User: Fold this.
Amino acid sequence: MHLIPTQDEVVAVLRETGALRDGHFQYPTGTHSNEYLQVPLAMRYYQYQRMLSVGLSRLLRANTEIRALVPQLSVVAPATGGLPVAYGVCEALRARQVYWAERKNAAEPLRFRQYLEQLPNEPVVLVDDILRTGSRLAELKQLVEARGVQVFGLAVVIYQPTPQTHDFGPLPLYYLARLEASYYADAAGCELCKQNVPLEKVWD
Assistant:
């Protein structure tokens, strides 16, 4: 195993744990895909949670600006999928703290827990298990910046971009593996539907 796991090593872990599946999947948005990924299935196992979190922390530490900020750095995640990654990265980096944003239901915006206060110009990195469209991370970035916080990078275990992936501009993005899936807006344009590949509906 390398100090920073390779793409092949990460994919092997995902497949071994059932976190990465091939087939024909329909997301709640109606989008169809040939690939489904649920990183928390891999993060259940201590040795893999450790491998992925430490690997991601080493990518962050390689950035001299972020490395210099570590004693004051906060790791911020959207609940719930990003939390195991955030805690692992914080521990490996020896960063100051972890906190997260959550929502009661899909109709509400992300919010921080009561009594959680950010420091003026507090440096943070945003962490999640996966970046697909990036909508959650974009909302989280807007939320922390509205509190006067400075975001110095994004870090995810898996980068799996879609045609709708948010553009974060010059903000550094760190990831252990990039997966390329096929996406179809609906059943009418889905090549898998045309081939009568059995469909499985997934939650997220």
User: Anything to note?
Assistant: The mean pLDDT is 94. Residues 42 and 48 are 6 Å apart (CA to CA).
